[in-house]
Amino acid sequence: MTKLKKIFLKSAGDYRRNWKGLLIITLYTVFWLYIYLCTAQYIGNGLINLLFLTPLYVFLTIGGNYYCLKIARGEKAGIIEAVLKGITEDTGKLLVMNFLIELFKILWSLLLIIPGIVKGIAYSQANYVFLENPGLSGKECIGKSEYLMEGEKEMYFFMYGWVFVLPVLIMVFLSIITAVFINSDQALNYLSKTSYAGMGIMFFYPFYTLLSANFYVSLTDGDVKLNDEENGKDKWFIFGVLIISLLMCIIVNIIPVAELFYQY
């Protein structure tokens, strides 16, 4: 069994056994991220976004990372503890580290897009390193992430593309098809409805975060432990989650088209 397949099955099993807590964390995160996106669009000021809204995004994502990392390690994690993790840890170091990551990615992207993507993957484990190594500085966490990702970038890119980007692209494709059937007078009404399309991705997002956490565990521990007796259940569970996610995206995009045909 390949390493990526083990990570996939381990993450599916973790999701099946902890789905309630994961969805609560995700709902909380999605709610505040929705507020974050709406506020960022309304304010439209880059400096305000950088100073106030970006820290909110960092604090929210670190809580989900912490919760999933605990699950990947086979440890118990409290929901409240995870939610507050971003503001109870060394918040200054956390913010500086994420600022440096974004700055480095931007600088590398100036050479062309590809170097920025490669470096983004290299820095992908920095938050997990931060959570497990509180004594390291932000720059040291970034450096250790680069070290852990040596020779692993291709697998991470493949995992990220198939498990997260592909469902999002399907949702965007459905939205584009829907837009063909509606006119400009209905655009606002359509956008208000398709804002709920993210609900489908919401069910799949915990699985992606678990994949990232288990990927990190595989880098530090050399492997992940599987329960072979429950692999079949885990496969069907995550298949069902994917189907539900895609169905929700399809339904949300069908609504405005159905209303248009009903009017005629």
How would you state the average pLDDT, rounded?
A: 78
What structural category do the secondary elements indicate? mainly alpha
Measured by DSSP, the beta-strand proportion falls in under 5%
Q: Show unreliable segments.
A: 190-196
- Choose one word for the global shape: globular
Number of helices: 13
* Rg (CA only): 20 Å
The major sheet is characterized as: none
Q: What percent of the residues sit in helical stretches (DSSP H or I)?
A: over 70%
Number of domains as seen in the coordinates: 1
Number of strands: 0
CA distance, first residue to last residue: 55 Å
Order of helices and strands: HHHHHHHHHHHHH
Itemize the secondary structure elements and their pairings.
Layout: H1 3-17, H2 19-43, H3 46-72, H4 79-83, H5 85-88, H6 91-109, H7 113-122, H8 126-132, H9 138-148, H10 153-180, H11 187-194, H12 198-221, H13 231-263
Helix pairs in contact: 1-12, 1-13, 2-3, 2-12, 3-12, 6-7, 6-9, 8-9, 10-12, 10-13, 11-13, 12-13
Keywords:
264 residues, 0% strand, globular
Description of the molecule:
The protein is built from 13 helices and no strands. The chain is an all-alpha fold and 264 residues long. The chain has one domain. Helix 1 packs across helix 13, helix 2 crosses helix 12 and helix 8 crosses helix 9. The longest helix is centred in the C-terminal third of the chain and has 33 residues. The termini are far apart.
Give a brief rundown of this model.
The chain is mainly α. It has helices spanning 3-17, 19-43, 46-72, 79-83, 85-88, 91-109, 113-122, 126-132, 138-148, 153-180, 187-194, 198-221, 231-263.
